[in-house]
Design brief:
The protein is mostly beta strands. It is built from 2 helices and 13 strands. Strands 11-10-9-8-13-12 form a 6-stranded mixed β-sheet, with no helix packed on it.
Length: about 170
């Protein structure tokens, strides 16, 4: 498990007065402002975020010290992190994406299928991207109890039951 978790990203400038467009990865997007200062992944920079309004594709925000479009644009693509201990604990059947990426994936018989390369969500539910172990391309599976009956963070693995036709 990582010490810092990415909870958002700066998508670029919004307007000419230094306002930014933020993408929030929080389940309630506005919660991104409630965690206090946000950091770059290496912790080298911190940002005090103040939300201004909803905007197309995210949230409008201001960062202390950013006063014009050029300064805001220079931050485009910056991922925003918080320390793990600031995150709320989750129920037993919920997981942070960061904790799943990199886990070994096995079938119910114990054969290694690959590793979790990423998790995607395009609005209809979480999708696991499984990479490695001889597949030509990534295997994409729904992250449901039926397909993924076992998540064992302590052992660093998932058990997946690949639906027929995807094997």
């Amino acid at each position: 498990m990582t010490d810092r978790i990415c909870i958002g990203a700066i998508a670029g400038a919004f307007g000419v007065a230094g306002e930014l467009r933020l993408k929030s990865f929080c389940s309630v997007p506005e919660d991104i402002a409630s965690y206090g200062p946000l950091f770059t992944e290496d912790g080298g920079s911190s940002f005090k975020i103040t939300l201004t309004r909803p905007v197309a594709g995210g949230l409008g925000a201001r960062i202390a010290g950013i006063t014009n479009k050029d300064e805001a644009d220079a931050l485009r693509g910056t991922s925003l992190f918080i320390d793990r201990e600031k995150l709320p604990s989750l129920p037993d059947d919920e997981f942070y994406y960061a904790d799943l990426v990199g886990l070994e994936v096995r079938d119910p018989g114990g054969a290694v299928i690959g590793k979790v390369g990423a998790i995607h969500n395009h609005g209809a539910g979480d999708i696991l991207e499984i990479v490695g172990s001889g597949h030509k391309s990534a295997l994409l599976l729904p992250f449901t109890k039926t397909t993924v009956p076992t998540v064992d963070l302590a052992a660093g693995r998932l058990i997946v039951d690949i639906p027929e036709g995807l094997e």
